[in-house]
Write a structure and sequence with these properties.
By secondary structure, the chain is of the alpha/beta class. The chain has nine helices and ten strands.
């Protein structure tokens, strides 16, 4: 990773896409470590996290994470997710945050030197090109160490720097859970605090349908 001590940095995290990449690589993200890691690499202006949330349900496992991030240094942008049943009778959740990310990134571009996008969605290629014309360098965080790769080839080519999420896992991943934790996991509500500050990010039910939206996005 190429960062300069005096450059102004902004992070843009596509929550569902970033979660899917980390899950595929087999680790959980420690968002406190993520924030601290990029604070070491320059002047962190803003870290924005984008996610859609199911609102018409009794409990949303995404909400506790969004609340924790909001209180711990992240700018959290949410909108209602839409749940529907596809033609095969499968439950699907749609929560595209592309427009929100694009608008915020274009507005912030004149005020930073380096933007880091945590997503592999090829739809962002045109956005990255537009931001680069305004001056900032753009790094993209995703992974090519999965099958299939999590990042679209055109997005990787457009970025000034590609950072493989697998190479960050040792820096921003959570330590292995204690023996027996997984057995007890079923007795805990998703998102409930563990040891005061660790959240069980049990997004599988809520993001089950969103993951399918990534299929085809990452193909060259």
């Amino acid at each position: 990773m190429t960062f300069y001590p005096n450059e102004r940095i902004a992070l843009f995290i596509d929550g569902a896409n970033f979660y899917a990449a980390a899950r595929t690589l087999g680790f959980d993200v420690d968002y406190r470590k993520l924030l601290e890691e990029f604070k070491k690499r320059g002047r962190l202006v803003r870290a924005s996290y984008y996610t859609a949330i199911l609102e018409d349900v009794e409990y949303s496992p995404v909400r506790p994470l969004a609340d924790w991030l909001d209180y711990n240094g992240f700018n959290v942008i949410t909108k209602p997710a839409k749940e529907f049943t596809d033609t095969l009778g499968r439950r699907r959740v749609k929560g595209d945050m592309d427009i929100e990310i694009a608008v915020d990134m274009m507005e912030l571009a004149p005020h930073v030197d380096h933007i880091v996008l945590f997503s592999g969605d090829g739809d962002f290629r045109v956005l990255i090109e537009a931001v680069q014309r305004r001056g900032p360098r753009v790094s993209v965080v995703s992974s090519i160490k999965t099958q299939p790769p999590m990042i679209a080839d055109e997005l990787r080519r457009q970025a000034d720097t590609f950072i493989d999420l697998a190479d960050l896992s040792a820096l921003i991943g959570r330590p292995p859970r204690p023996d027996g934790f997984d057995n007890a996991r079923g007795n805990l509500r998703p998102g409930r605090a563990v040891d005061g500050d660790e959240f069980i990010d049990d997004f599988d039910d809520e993001l089950e349908g969103m993951d399918d939206e990534f299929e085809g996005e990452t193909e060259a």
